[in-house]
Amino acid sequence: MQTTITVNGTAQTLDVDPRTTLLDALREHLGLTGSKKGCDHGQCGACTVLVNGVRINSCLSILAMHDGDQVTTIEGLGQPGALHPVQQAFLENDALQCGYCTPGQICSTVGMLQEAADGWASRETADLTAPTALTDAEIRERMSGNICRCSAYPQILAAIRDLAGEVA
């Protein structure tokens, strides 16, 4: 099956088995190995990418569903010497240990900050009419789909808290 997607600003036409996941297309067909295959069940968030600006678990999404979509992976967020603000905040707060989950954590943070800026509610949102306040509880809830087996959560929270002050 032929599918055309734009990945990190470049149009890509892939002719793959119709059962191919977005994650497998990115890793195996396009050589973009930043997104990780952690659990392959949508439970860990290591495969998180942005599709049309919205974060998704790419291991659960079939490539054919994304014909014409814009996909941003960790490779498309920043460049050496010009890191994305989320990448910079993770670096400054030492918000990684082994690094396996970091690409998914960063992509999820980018999507989560946009969701909060757009007024999307979470389970922790107390007042649906007020601007979203990214409290520690709110950040934890919104990032709960991303697991860090090394337990760098305090540093990840600190990085996001630093960024939340910029978008709030």
Automatic annotation (TrEMBL):
Keywords: 2Fe-2S, Iron, Iron-sulfur, Metal-binding, Oxidoreductase. Gene3D superfamilies: 3.10.20.30, [2Fe-2S]-binding domain. Coiled coil: none annotated. Residues 1-77 form the 2Fe-2S ferredoxin-type domain. Pfam families: Fer2, Fer2_2. The keyword Magnesium does not apply. It comes from the Bacteria. This is Xanthine dehydrogenase YagT iron-sulfur-binding subunit. SUPFAM superfamilies: 2Fe-2S ferredoxin-like (SSF54292), CO dehydrogenase ISP C-domain like (SSF47741). One of its GO terms (molecular function) is 2 iron, 2 sulfur cluster binding. The keyword Metal-binding applies. InterPro entries: 2Fe-2S-bd, 2Fe-2S-bd_dom_sf, 2Fe-2S_ferredoxin-like_sf, 2Fe-2S_ferredoxin-type, 2Fe2S_fd_BS, Aldehyde_Oxdr_Iron-Sulfur, Beta-grasp_dom_sf. PROSITE patterns: 2FE2S_FER_1, 2FE2S_FER_2.
